[in-house]
Design goal:
By secondary structure, this protein is mainly α. The protein contains 8 helices and 2 strands. A hairpin with a 2-residue loop joins strand 1 and strand 2. Helix 6 packs across helix 7.
């Protein structure tokens, strides 16, 4: 979501936004959030590799329906995978079971390899579905949909403020980095570099607090009482019913295949 925060991403398809007329965007935002949550719960409950692969296929279909740019989406997926690749590489050596091979005195097991594959498929399927269903949503629409789903008002306000001002903080960071470069700063593996980066983080925090106080005072002067007025036009339609039936059938199908698989069970 980081690339759609604070702006209308659907108007910027070249920057990773989703076209306004995609099939996913015709579905009510509340239906998309509910579908994303149910999809994530179902995928987490699966353990059969074939069924998980089908779940990943469902996520790919959602990506196609959302008309998400393939290159941009794959780059985001690779960024996510980079956080778990080390864990996946170590699992075959840390889970006991039938040995496959030995490396530097450590034995890899089939059970560990299967567990790593399960985690990789689950993570990619869930993230891809969230990007397609929720990440393609305009930030303000996301806030309104969450409020309509009875999410606490304070949490919704926090999300909306975070979305709005992440881009502002990023611009502030760019200005500070430009000032550091103008003074000849070049990052190196040295104490001076670490001290300078610490000053940068500290200055970001100080300026963020100062800006938040000024914004709060300005909003109070304009009559802000802690609640955003609900001026959305969210309404369920026939497309939401069709989308719900298709997603429900797909999730039931995955659960049935899981239970029908050898040793099939939910929540391994």
């Amino acid at each position: 979501m980081e690339q759609i925060l604070g702006m209308d991403s659907s108007a910027l398809p070249e920057a990773g936004g989703v076209p306004r007329r995609s099939r996913i965007n015709r579905v009510d935002a509340r239906s998309r959030i509910i579908a994303a949550v149910i999809f994530a719960l179902v995928i987490v409950a699966l353990d059969d590799l074939v069924v998980l692969s089908l779940g990943l296929g469902v996520a790919l279909v959602l990506m196609t329906m959302a008309q998400m740019p393939v290159g941009q989406t794959l780059r985001r997926m690779i960024m996510m995978d980079s956080f778990i690749i080390v864990m996946l590489a170590l699992l075959p050596f840390t889970v006991s079971g039938q040995p496959i091979f030995a490396l530097f005195g450590f034995t890899a097991s089939w059970e560990g390899l299967i567990k790593a594959a399960q985690i990789g498929l689950k993570a990619n399927a869930i993230i891809l579905a969230l990007m397609s269903l929720v990440g393609s949503m305009e930030p303000v629409t996301l806030g309104y949909a969450l409020r309509r789903l009875c999410v606490p008002q304070r949490l919704v306000s926090l999300i909306l403020f975070t979305i709005r001002y992440l881009d502002v903080l990023h611009q502030e960071y760019q200005r500070l980095r430009a000032a550091m470069k103008a003074r000849g700063f070049r990052p190196r593996n040295s104490r001076h570099t670490y001290r300078s980066l610490g000053y940068l983080v500290g200055m970001m925090l100080v300026r963020a607090v100062d800006r938040s106080e000024r914004i709060l005072e300005a909003m109070k002067c304009r009559g802000f009482t802690g609640n955003f007025p609900m001026i959305d036009t969210l309404a369920y339609s026939r497309s939401d019913a069709v989308f719900g039936l298709v997603m429900g059938a797909a999730m039931i199908g995955l659960v049935v295949l899981q239970t029908a698989s050898p040793g099939g069970r939910l929540f391994p």
